[in-house]
């Protein structure tokens, strides 16, 4: 009889099964509560402005007569035709691409070097140097540009002996003066990302390498750098996006240099066009610039991933 009673007793799992749908609903409710704030902010401040800009780029302003009231009408791709005919805009795109080809590798190379120094067992005072390397990032870009503008200006710089001989605000050097400001500000930010990736590497790998007779330089070159390559690629993508969005530094330095025109960078061209005001053409500029940024970042990411996987 005891055997029969035990056979008829349902398992514990069967007793709990009716409560499973309730648990699933609770999980979905909790996920919704946590995701909803991000989704609302994403839609309001990211998706909605993009959609609005795309709609504005398809419109154009018409007037009834010379002094008629302006009226927005559907213009199709008229604004985009004007974008591709604008030589000043495409010259600014070429300018920032040259800027990125030179500045981004230099900045990321310095960030990697500083991160390796902070991770080295030979460096003393790591807390001080970590703060010193990161401190420039805490300075807003406009403030940094004003500060460096005074340092570059021959009549205001405390290094007048240098700036009187080399005019950093001249047309041939002002682009690299801007590159110096951007590098000074963002090296610490990129260093922090790479350094965090270095801290995630298990120390057992270093111990095994030292037992095999590897020096600190060999460990850095053959172990650390390959393992932080994904972090370097991430910072490179961020830097490419930031390069094409360059605005604060050239806009601020216009007060110090006449070599910086109102269309010196793509974002400056968009800002100037919107200030006319010609919002529809500025929206078309923005959409084209966003697509170019996406394509360039996507191609770079795919190319580097393919190389890493090989």
From TrEMBL:
UniProt-listed InterPro entries: MetI-like, MetI-like_sf, UgpAE/MalFG_permease
GO biological process: transmembrane transport
Region (Disordered): 1-25
Residue ranges occupied by any ABC transmembrane type-1 domain in the UniProt entry: 93-300
Subcellular location: Cell membrane
Tagged with keyword Membrane: yes
The name this protein goes by in its record: Carbohydrate ABC transporter membrane protein 1, CUT1 family
Organism: Arthrobacter subterraneus
Origin organism lineage: Bacteria, Bacillati, Actinomycetota, Actinomycetes, Micrococcales
């Amino acid at each position: 009889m005891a055997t029969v009673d035990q056979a008829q007793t349902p398992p514990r799992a069967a007793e709990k099964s009716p409560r499973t749908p309730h648990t699933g609903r609770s999980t979905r409710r909790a996920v919704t509560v946590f995701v909803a704030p991000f989704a609302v902010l994403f839609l309001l401040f990211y998706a909605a402005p993009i959609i609005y800009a795309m709609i504005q780029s398809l419109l154009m302003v018409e007037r009834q007569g010379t002094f008629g009231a302006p009226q927005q009408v559907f213009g199709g791709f008229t604004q985009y035709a004007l974008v591709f005919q604008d030589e000043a805009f495409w010259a600014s795109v070429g300018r920032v691409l040259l800027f990125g080809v030179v500045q981004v590798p230099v900045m990321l190379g310095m960030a990697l070097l500083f991160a390796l120094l902070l991770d080295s067992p030979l460096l003393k005072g790591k807390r001080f140097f970590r703060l010193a390397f990161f401190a420039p990032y805490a300075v807003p870009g406009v403030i940094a540009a004003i500060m460096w503008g005074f340092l570059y200006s021959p009549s205001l710089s405390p290094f007048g002996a240098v700036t009187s001989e080399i005019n950093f605000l001249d047309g041939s050097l002002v682009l690299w003066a801007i590159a110096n400001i951007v590098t000074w500000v963002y090296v610490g930010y990129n260093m922090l990302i790479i350094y965090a990736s270095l801290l995630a590497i298990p120390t057992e790998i270093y111990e095994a390498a030292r037992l095999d007779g590897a020096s600190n330089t060999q460990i850095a070159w053959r172990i650390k750098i390959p393992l932080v390559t994904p972090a370097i690629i991430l910072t490179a993508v961020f830097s490419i996006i930031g390069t094409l969005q360059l605005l604060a530094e050239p806009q601020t330095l216009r007060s110090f240099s006449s070599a910086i025109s109102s269309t010196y960078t793509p974002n400056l061209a968009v800002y100037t066009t919107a200030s006319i005001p010609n919002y529809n053409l500025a929206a078309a500029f923005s959409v084209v610039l966003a697509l170019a940024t996406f394509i360039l970042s996507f191609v770079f990411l795919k190319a580097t991933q393919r190389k890493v996987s090989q």
